[in-house]
Amino acid sequence: MAWPSSSESTVLAPSRRPAAGEVPLPDTWTMARGTRDGAPQDDDAWVAAQVPGTVAGALRAAGGAIPDIDLDAEDWWYRLAFTMPQGTDDPSRSPASERSLLCFDGLATIADVWLNGHAILHGESMWQAHAVDVTEILAPNNRLELRFRALAPSLARQRRPRQRWRTRLVPDGNLRWLRTMLLGRAPGLGPLPAAVGPWRPIRLVRRGGTTVDGLRVRTRLRDSEGHLTVTARVTTPAGRPVHSAQVRIDGPSGSHEAPLRLGG
Fold first, then answer.
1. Helices marked H in the chain — which ranges?
2. What is the mean pLDDT of the chain?
C-alpha cells in the first residue's frame, strides 16, 4: 500500500481558529484496541471517543479508570462515519476551483489514515500538522479510519549512532528517535499515561478561489543576516496563471516584503 509523500500532504500547523469553509464533522468517534490483523470487527470492542483527545481519555470515560496497560505496546484505532451536509454532498457539482482538505492538527504518534478505504496519510511526528486534499475521494457517505501504531516495535530496533551516555530520564534511550511527548514515558516526570491518539483537532475544510498548499518556511543565519526561504504550491481557479507573488514578514524589526520567484 503506497502512502502519500510528506511533500504531498504536510503543511505548517494551521490556525486553531475555525477556518473559512470548514465543514463540521460529527462528534461520534469511536476507538478500539487493534490486533495484528487490523481493526476489531466486533462492534462491542469499540467505545465512544472524543476528538481531539487521547486513548487514555477514552478509556477513562468508558470505564472510569485507565487500565494498567502499556499504551505504547498496542495498536489503537479510531473511526468516524460522516455524511456530507446538504449542498456539499456531491463533490462533482462543486466548482472546479474548490478543493476539500482533511486537516489533522496533531496525531500521536506513528499514524496511518484511510478515507473510504484509500490510504491518504502516514505520519511519524505528533507535532506535525497535515492537510490532505481529498476532493476526489469524498462521497455522500464517508468512513474515516485512523490507526496509531504501537511504538514498542520501533523502540526495539537497533539504531545508529548509539547513545554516548545513558539517560535515567526514560527507560528506553531509543525514544530520542521519535517525535513524541515524554510525559507518560518518563517515570521521573510523573505517572501519567502516554499521549496516544488524535490529540489535536481533525477538520474538513472546503477552499475556493486561490489556495496555498504545501507551505514550507526555512530560516537560517548567514553572518549577521537572517535569511528566509519560502516554498509553496498555489492553486488558482480554472488553472489561471500566477504572474506575481509577495511574501510579507511582520516581527520585532518591523514589516518586510520581498517578491517570490515563480516556477512550475
1. 6-9, 55-63, 152-156
2. 80
